[in-house]
Write a structure and sequence with these properties.
2 domains; Rossmann fold; alpha/beta; oxidoreductase; 348 residues; globular; seven-stranded parallel beta sheet
């Protein structure tokens, strides 16, 4: 009898390991998120009718969130600085869905204007009665070397990406605690989990978000129906690099880089919505071989450092040479070779 139980237990463990390995090799997200996408709740049923406030909704991931949420039947609050672009997104949302004009509120918002956040939150509640989901997606990236970057750039990155997000959450969360339910979803990055060359300030702001919201989650144990979720995408097709900070506040990015080998925005957003629908607390979203970075940093830091050092060196060299457009393809090649060579050397 004991032998039979032991055999069943080992069979179960081996099956779990096999599933984990298959998901890792062929997947584009962490195992929990992949399983949720296969056997979990569907966003079309869980998010229908919910009031979802999306910041940074005028382009990129935020814009795609608006479209897919509209198809799910969510009522939307679209926020960003550019009202004309928000109106464009709203019109397309109406075309793609059965939503009516009153189901979508265009609400211009600047995360840096923190004194306006209380009034903006009141406007949403007055319009829809409540807020079910806040998706903190607003922010900017960075492309510059630390030794060449003015301190003002770091101040701007922290004010926008971190303090601005905290400020808006500060206004929305009390409403959710009063209701006893809600979701605060924050778009972080792989740069919030690991160091990324040319993005020291951006990475710092995302690390700050990770630390803040992970700590906030521990303060909300009396509210089990309030979800604090972090989304950590890898390279995704969007305009974020075009709007990135450089070494000077007023200097635009010279080379945006190739979008060819990045994950599609639609796939990234679909996985995000699956995670929200299933209450996933942290989502890793990236294609291989980038996904291995997440696992390496979590389980094999020696391997992760070896990978990061090689990739970082090449990326900095390309940046200095003004040849950043092909860096994603370079990372793909280097990541594959570096991972396996480091694995053999470290034994991890």
């Amino acid at each position: 009898m004991d032998w039979c139980f032991s055999s069943l237990l080992w069979s179960f463990i081996l099956l779990c390991l096999l599933v984990h390995v298959v998901c890792f090799i062929f997947g584009d997200a962490d195992v929990i998120l992949q399983l949720a996408s296969l056997i979990g709740h569907k966003p079309e049923s869980k998010l229908r009718g919910l009031v979802v406030w999306v910041t940074g909704a005028s382009s990129g991931i935020g814009e795609e969130l608006a479209y897919q949420l509209a198809k799910c039947g969510s009522r939307l609050v679209l926020s960003a600085r550019r009202e004309d672009q928000l109106n464009r997104v709203k019109l397309k949302c109406l075309e793609l869905s059965s939503l009516k004009d009153e189901d979508i509120l265009v609400l211009p918002l600047d995360l840096l204007e923190r004194k306006s956040h209380e009034e903006k939150t009141k406007t949403v509640i007055e319009n829809f009665g409540h807020i079910d989901v806040l998706i903190n997606n607003g922010g900017r990236s960075q492309r510059s070397l630390f030794l060449e970057t003015h301190v003002e750039v770091y101040e701007a990155l922290m004010e926008l990406n971190f303090i601005g997000t905290v400020s808006l959450t500060k206004q929305v969360l009390p409403h959710m605690t009063q209701r006893g339910r809600g979701s605060v979803v924050t778009v972080s990055s792989v740069a919030g989990l690991a160091g990324v060359p040319l993005s020291t300030g951006y990475s710092a702001s995302k690390h700050a978000l990770q630390g803040f919201f992970n700590s906030l989650r521990t303060e909300l144990t009396d509210f089990p129906n309030i979800l604090i979720s972090m989304v950590c995408p890898g390279p995704v097709q969007s305009d974020i690099v075009n709007n990135a900070f450089t070494e000077d506040l007023n200097k635009p990015v010279a080379i945006a880089g190739s979008q060819e080998h990045k994950m599609s925005t639609s796939r990234c957003v679909r996985l995000m919505l699956v995670g929200i629908a299933n209450g996933v607390k942290e989502m890793w979203i990236a294609q291989q071989p980038f996904l291995m970075f997440y696992y390496a940093w979590q389980y094999a830091p020696t391997v992760a450092w070896a990978m990061t050092n090689q990739l970082g060196r090449k990326r900095v060299q390309n940046f200095k040479a003004g040849v950043l457009a092909g860096h994603v393809r370079t990372c793909l090649t280097l990541a594959k070779t570096t991972y396996f060579s480091s694995f053999l050397v470290s034994g991890k």
